[in-house]
Write a structure and sequence with these properties.
This protein is mostly helical. It has one domain (2-119). 67% of the residues lie in helices and 0% in strands. The protein contains 4 helices and no strands. α2 runs antiparallel to α3 and α3 packs antiparallel against α4. The longest helix is centred in the middle third of the chain and has 28 residues, at 62-89. The two termini are 23 Å apart.
Length: 138
């Protein structure tokens, strides 16, 4: 997973570098700043592996806590960056195919929320040691 997070961080940073000259509006600049923040969050996620899901909160390692911080930084920043950049670039006809790719991010978010609801919070209202992990049998 570290390689995936690292690749996603590098890709986000490259998109930032590619668009920095093409986004003149304030809305677009805010979106670019959020994209850079998301790249930093993704790089943090690649550097700090997460603990097992069943690890109680009080026994989490520094690495696991930092992975959680990277999630809290990276995911909202990525979602808001896509929204703001979509709005900023939406008026440009040359960027029209990018809006389809932006829609993919929103569909992915919907899928992630659906999976999180299905895996679900435990009876106490949170994720963690009481959650069951189901594995498919082959």
């Amino acid at each position: 997973m570290a390689v995936c997070f690292g690749a996603f961080a590098a890709a986000s940073a490259c998109v930032f570098a590619a668009l920095v000259a093409d986004v003149p509006t304030l809305l677009g600049r805010i979106g670019l700043a959020l994209l850079l923040i998301a790249a930093i969050g993704l790089a943090m996620a690649s550097r700090f592996p997460m603990d097992a899901v069943s690890t109680p909160r009080e026994r989490m390692s520094f690495s696991g806590r930092m992975h959680g911080v990277s999630f809290l930084v990276g995911v909202p920043a990525q979602i808001l960056a896509v929204l703001l950049l979509s709005l900023a670039l939406g008026s440009s006809r040359a960027r029209l195919p990018l809006l389809g790719l932006a829609a993919t991010v929103w569909l992915s978010l919907a899928a992630m929320i659906t999976i999180m609801v299905m895996v679900g919070p435990v009876k106490q209202g949170g994720f963690g040691s009481g959650a069951t992990v189901r594995c498919a049998r082959r």
